[in-house]
From TrEMBL:
Record flagged with keyword Nucleotide-binding: yes
Organism whose genome encodes this protein: Chitinimonas arctica
Protein residues bound to ATP: 124-132, 146
Enzyme active site: 281
GO biological process: regulation of ubiquinone biosynthetic process; ubiquinone biosynthetic process
ABC1 atypical kinase-like domain boundaries: 88-332
GO cellular component: plasma membrane
A GO MF label: ATP binding
HAMAP family for this protein: UbiB
Source superkingdom: Bacteria
Protein known as: Probable protein kinase UbiB
Amino acid sequence: MFLLRLLKIIRIVFAYGLDEFILGHERVRGLETLVRTVLFWRRFSDSRAVRLRLALEKLGPIFVKFGQVLSTRRDLLPADLADELAHLQDRVKPFPSQLSEQVIEAALGRPLAQLFKRFDSVPVASASVAQVHYAELPNGRRVAVKVLRPNILAVIEQDLALLKVIAWLVEKLFSDGKRLKPREVVAEFDRYLHDELDLQREAANASQLRRNFHGSDKLIVPEVFWDLTSRNVMVMEWMDGIPISRIEQMRAAGIDLKKLAVYGVEIFFTQVFRDGFFHADMHPGNIFVAPDNRYIALDFGIVGSLSDFDKRYLAINFLAFFQRDYKRVATAHIESGWVPKGTRAEELEAAIRTVCEPIFDKPLAEISLGQVLLRLFETSRRFQVEIQPQLALLQKTLLNIEGLGRELDPQLDLWATAQPFLQRWMNEQIGWRALLRQLKQEAPYWAETLPALPRAIANLADPQRQAKLVEATEHLLESQRQRNEWLATIAGLLAALLVVLALVLRGG
C-alpha cells in the first residue's frame, strides 16, 4: 500500500509539473533536460501556484489539509504559493451512513434508536476527518452528531510518513532547507491532525470557548453533550443560522452587517488578549450568523493558546507599528529571543521601516493589520526570525477575520476598532491597574504568610536554632562528601575491571 501510494504521488507530481520545484535545484539540475525530453508533450497554461493547489486536491484530503496549514506559514513560503494555497477547499465525499451508524453505536454502547428519536442518515456536512448528521434526542433537543471517518488513522499515518520523507529531502537538497524547517512544519501538521482525530479534545475546546463567552451578546458557542461524546463521536447543540458567506441572504434577514464586522474584530481581540485562547479555524464554513446578529462558532478542532509573554509581545508590536515606532518593534523581536544572536537592532529597524512606511501613506481605514503581519513575516525570512507556531496560527486567524470583516463592511477600519482594546489591555498589564490586580491575586498567600512572619524572624534570631541549623548544614555537607568518595571508589573499581577484561579478551 505504501509503495502504491508513493507511485501515485510521483505520477501526480509529474502530471502537474511539480518536478520544477526540485529539478531547478543545482544538485539535480542535470536531470531537468532528461525529464523535459522524456515528457516532451507536457504544456502548462497554469502558474506553478495553481498547479500545486490542483495537485494537492488530486492527492486527497490529507494533502489538502496540509496545504491549508502550509498556507499560514507565510514566513516560509513565497507570496504566490501562500495566496493560492489559501484557496484550498476541504470538500470530501461522505462515507456511507451505515458506517456512520456503526461507529456511533460502538462508541456510545447503545442502539441508535435508544440514543436518538430521529437521526438523518444523509450528512449535512462532510470533511476530510469527519462528517456531521442532524439528529434529535429523546427529549426533543435538536443536535449535531459529528462522526470520525472509519479507519482514518491508518490513512493519515501513511500520508504523514510520505510527507516526512518529502520534508527530509527538501531539507537536504535545498540550501535554504534548514531555515524553512520542513520537518518541523510536518511535525506541526502531524500534531494538528492528531488533535482533530480526538473529538473529546474538540469537545473540550468548545466547552472552554463557551465558558469564556458565557452571556456574550456577540458570540454563541453550542453546548456539548458529554454523555454522548467519545473520541470518535461528538454530539452538540444544533445551531440555526445563515452561513456568513451569504451576504445577500443576511441583508434580506435584516442582519446589521456593519455591526457584525465590528463584532468580529472585538471577538478576535477578546479571545487573544483577554483569554489567550482562540478559535484558529475561522473560515466561512465554520461561522454562521444568528437572527439576533450574533456570530455562531462551529468546528473547534484547531485552537490556539497564548502565554502572557506572547500577548505582551503582540500588543507591543501592534501599538508600535501604528505609532511608527520601528525601533520598538525591532527591540521587541530581539527581546523575545526569536531573532538570531548578533542581530543589529538598527538593521532590523531599517528593514521594518522600509516595508511599513508605504502603508502609512494610505488613509487609516485602508491599513490592513493582516498585511502588516505578512510584511513582517517576509522581513523575518531575511533576518531568520523564529516564527512560533502559535503566532502563525494567530496570523492565519487574523487574516480570516479581516477578510470576513471587509466582506461585511468594505469600509471597516480594523485598527480603529482594535486600538482602544489594545491600549486598554496594555494599561491593565503595565501601571497601577496591573499592580492592584497582582496584589489581589497574591492577597490569599500574604494573608496566610504574614501572621507567621514574626515567629519565623524570631526563630532565625534564636541562637539555639542558629546553632542547630549550622550543625544540620555541616552534617549534610559531610554526608555529601562521603557519598562522593564512595562513588569515586566504585568508579575506580569499574575502570580497573574494564582494563582487566580488555586484557583477558586480547590475550584470548
